[in-house]
Amino acid sequence: MKRAFSQVLTAAQMRAAEQALIGAGTGVSELMERAGRGAADWVRRVAVGRPVTVLCGPGNNGGDGYVIARALREAGLAVRVVAPLPPATDAARAAQAAWGGGTGTLARGGVLVDALFGTGLARPLGTALAELLCAAAREHEFRIAIDLPSGIDADRGEPLDDGLPPFDLTLSLGAWKPAHWRMPAMTAMGERRLVDIGIERVAGAARLLSRPVLHSPAIGAHKYTRGFVGVVGGAMPGAGQLAAEAAMHGGAGYVKLFADAWPSQPSPELVVEGGDLRDVVADRRLDVLLVGPGLGRGEVSHQRLAAALARELPTVVDGDALMLLDPALLSGRREGLVLTPHAGELAALYRALEIEAADPLERLRALAHDARAVVIAKGPDTVIAAPDGALTFTTGAPSWLSIAGSGDVLAGLVASRIAAGRTLFAAAEEAVWLHGRAARIAGPAFAPRGLIAALPPAISECL
Asked: Same domain, yes or no, for 319 and 437?
């Protein structure tokens, strides 16, 4: 079975994956040794001779902590174990016995290792343990969380207690968990690294976004074989122009902006066509439509959205169009959609489609399923969902992307990657990666056109 280090497992999936290893003959104590010694390698590199305090909880995460302490002691580091609760599992008790160094009280140290609780925690730490963790964090120069910072819900990415301390490094054991890449938890994790303990690929698991592999156009390619994108403009033509320019830089062979109002500063490369939208989108050479950037929210905008969706092409729906989308517009659609909502637009879609699942990820999956669309839920923890339930988490893009126009650029990128022949889900993944990479290349305080200018070097890294 092929190992998958990019998979993201829920708490239930992680328990099942560990049980599969145990069922195949790997003992719990052996898994604990792998996890503890793998984590200890990272701790040792960070400590560089500084004293280490390991907080050990009662479960197997605490057992990992005892293994870490023993491995660090063997490496010659000064190690103190603080255990507010005795071990409660056989494997943790065995790990404590193998440590054999006893436990002490909290004191100032160089490096703190939080091994109180990991993935399995589903309830608050409680006042005493939360205060101990906060006090320990204050007394140490560098803080490392084992698997997850204690007090974090592994699936929802939410703190179970108020006022939990931030960490400088989080060492995920065996596989990534949703909380590693979800707000608000991810802001408290510092750098994140994965410790291999032998977990195999899990069917249906979410995955972490990785750099795509792109290809140059075929030798015999021309503008139509590389894909023809139509961008439906609206009340604010500048947004449509940004989306169209991004599509032009994202790999599409031909891009047209369908707009009655001419952009105030038109790009000389951009073809703009006016007239009745139903007539201009009837061009049989079109491969993809993008509707939403600068569309507006009035009756005319609703009509333009309806005309675009009636054309039955793969369609990217962004911006204002997301606020106008309703079940009637989606009814009977045969071609696929990509929706690109930010948090406010996502909430509006949930209301419009009457989606009420309690868990945020299940709610996102339900939206993708019911709308029969790939959904890019944009934000500092962007998640991409497919109608079949597939999920891709992202590693986070520069916060400089939080400007007006960056979403228009992303929408244009998605359309261009679809035009280039990618599936809707693959196009969404490629566009999100390129968008984030272009932001890093553009540097701080860029404008949307600076982001667009950084797309070609971002693409070149994937060839």
From this structure: yes
Ranges assigned E (strand) in 116-202:
140-146, 169-173, 191-195
The pLDDT assigned to 336 comes to: 94
CA pseudo-torsion sign 398, 400, 404, 405: negative
What would the two tokens of residue 343 be? Answer: 């948090």
> Looking at the structure, do residues 154 and 192 belong to the same domain, yes or no?
yes
Pairwise CA distance, residues 150 & 82, whole Å? 15
Rounded CA separation 90/96 (Å): 10
pLDDT band at 269 (very low <50, low <70, confident <90, very high): confident
Residue 181 φ/ψ region, left for φ over 0, alpha for ψ in the -120 to 50 degree band, beta for the rest:
alpha
Give yes or no: residues 190 and 308 share one domain: no
Domain total of the chain: 2
Same domain, 157 and 277: no
Q: How many other C-beta atoms lie within 10 A of the C-beta of residue 121?
A: 21
Q: Which domain holds residue 244?
A: 228-460
In degrees, rounded to 5, the angle at the alpha carbon of residue 13 between the alpha carbons of residues 424 and 193 is: 80
Residues 14 and 152 in one domain: yes
**Are 286 and 182 within one domain?**
no
CATH number of the structural domain spanning residue 147: 3.40.50.10260
**pLDDT tens by residue, 362-379:** 999 999 999 999 999 999
Per residue in 201-212, pLDDT tens? Answer: 999 999 999 999
| Tokens matching residue 60 | 């197997």
Same-domain check for residues 140 and 64: yes
Residue 389 lies in a domain: yes
In a domain, 297, yes or no: yes
8-state DSSP, 449: H
Q: Please check whether residues 155 and 251 belong to one and the same domain.
A: no
On the 0-12 / 13-18 / 19+ scale of CB atoms within 10 A, 93 is: middle
The SS3 assignment for 138 reads helix
**Separation in Å, CA 319 to CA 5, 263, 404, 411:** 34, 18, 11, 9
Alpha-helical regions (H) of 253-319: 277-280, 299-310
Is residue 213 included in any domain, yes or no? no
Tell me the per-residue pLDDT of 154-192, one tens digit each, with 9 for 90 and over: 999 999 999 999 999 999 999 999 999 999 999 999 999
**At 332, phi and psi to the nearest 5?**
85, -5
**Distance separating alpha carbons of residues 97 and 449, to the nearest angstrom:** 61
pLDDT digits (tens, 9 = 90+) for 93-123: 999 999 998 888 888 889 999 999 988 888 9
**What tokens were used for 388?**
């079949």
In a domain? residue 215? no
pLDDT-derived band at 266 (thresholds 50, 70, 90) equals low
- β-pairing, 169-173 vs 191-195, is parallel
d(C-alpha 236, C-alpha 263), whole Å: 9
